[in-house]
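Quick illustration for those who missed Monday's session on complexes.
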Amino acid sequence: MTMSALDAIRSPADLRDLDHHRLDELAADIRRVLIEVVAANGGHLGSNLGAVELTIALHRVLDSPTDAIVWDTGHQAYAHKLLTGRRARFPTLRRPHGLSGYPNRAESPHDWVENSHASTALSYAYGLAAARRQAGHAGRVVAVVGDGALTGGMAYEGLSNIGWRGLPVVVVLNDNGRSYAPTVSKLTESLSPLRVAGAGGASGDGAGPAFFEALGVDYRGPVDGHDIAALESGLGDALASGRPAVVHVLTRKGRGFAAAEDDDDKCLHDVAPFPARRYAPPVRTHPRYTDVFSDALVRAAARDPRIVAITAAMPSSTGLRPFAEAYPDRFFDVGIAEQHAVTAAAGMAMGGLRPVVAIYSSFLTRALDQVNLDVGLHQLPVVLCVDRAGITGPDGPSHHGVLDLALLGRVPGMTVFAPSSGAELEAMLVEALATNGPCALRWPSGTAREVPAAGVGGGRRARRLRAGRDVCIVAAGPLVEAADEAAGMLEGVGVSTTVWDMRLAKPLDDDLVVDAGRHRLVVTVEDGVREGGAGARLVDALGRSALVPGGLHGPDGTPPVIVLGVPDAYVTHGDPATIRSELGLDGIGIAAAARDGLRRVDDGAGFGGLASASAML
Ligand SMILES: Cc1ncc(C[n+]2csc(CCOP(=O)(O)OP(=O)(O)O)c2C)c(N)n1
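Prediction with thiamine diphosphate bound:
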């Protein structure tokens, strides 16, 4: 049996001697493997299928890792992984202990950047090229950026600097006309005549090219992004020029897989596992938190014409698609531009609207200054609807939403709601929209917890689920369920347990604080960083300093507090439930921390030696 073209590639050097017929076979092999593995594990499909020939061409003209390839976002680097010695491990993609879904420095010297937030590659490339110039290092620097990522402000900052300094960075603009949805940009529009004319069909003297050249960056293209020979020649010329250059490459998102090419929503940009070969969307029997938000927002918008909704290039993933269809004039996709989204919301609120910014937790943190000074300082009624909060899973450290509780809590006047069920989410959205100041609601990915009407709190009050005497567990959002489970276990061994759903991570309900203070031990639990989060706020509220040496038994007899949450570390990718349980953030972990804590209270042993996940503040 002859070896497949892909199996014969152990490193990029093996690509050099292949003729174009064999390269076409290689591209087909790569696509087959991409579809097979993404069908099994889920992941980024459309973006990777479109970048196969581009990746082959880059690795033929460059000498990686001496030459650096910086992938913007990094969601399109699967073929790069396959060509740089990771073919055998590729079936482990995104699995626990398997390959990361993004470039990863620990995996390969060919990977430079593992931050999967968009629009950063040009800045990394600028820095790397500046350092190499100073060191006299001959390696070249290439940044691959999508037309979607080029809507993010940082990309322009990087581009402007590259041109100003004349650094010989080659920026490959992988233009498929899409982010998830069609790209929101006049620049992309003015490059699109070139897209329509196709490779070699238009000269580089239109409005788009002039934009780059005005910044001191040569424009080359357009090049057919599925023609390896044309790509090699375009890239080779740009590299040989020794000048800053954009090579404009036209690709088709989802290329080679009809279900992706034809998917109007997002070209199967990212998918959950699906049956091999034939794509089928996941069947959902219960609504996710995102779906609950989606419906609740449309209902709220029908009642209040001032409500508008903003997304940073993720209309369907954030649940705004139904709103956009119902109220096209009140819907704003601003591109991959979270900072702008938040400040634009501030402007809309100044103009009398009620803006809702629908955003993933991990992307909101990019706009923290805007939340603090543009929304917060003016105390504007902007509602941040923060999805994918907490431990998210297979996308790894840059996609976990573990900072929002701590960071939003630092913004003066910010109300932070953490719904523990779908019904709570809707009640809190209504409350937030009626609030004359900044609010955030944050919820996890996945199925919304269902509770009876009596299990929903009201207004800005916390809700007590159980009343006991020994331990008081105070939980935020999705961890209320785990706290209740823990309470069941504790009651089973004779520990009388109270459980509070804090509902608002900020401000805390006074009744909760007073009641917690009556117990022998308080345990707080949240799916965010332990330091500076909601539990830490309760520690403060109970009147003890987080920094008391030895830490625990305050002079005033208030109970010690065990703060459970995510440790001060970058959490890797994996199954979310497994990660939470490893961090002690499940029923068993919470119950174990409480029992251990009570033993220490009873022994008068202090808490200095507690394991990190259950350490005390
Ligand atoms: C700061 C930030 N916001 C949002 C995202 C989510 N996101 C991932 S890829 C993507 C679209 C990227 O479009 P483009 O750069 O054109 O790449 P393509 O997938 O089309 O090849 C978005 C919005 C992100 N990774 N980073």
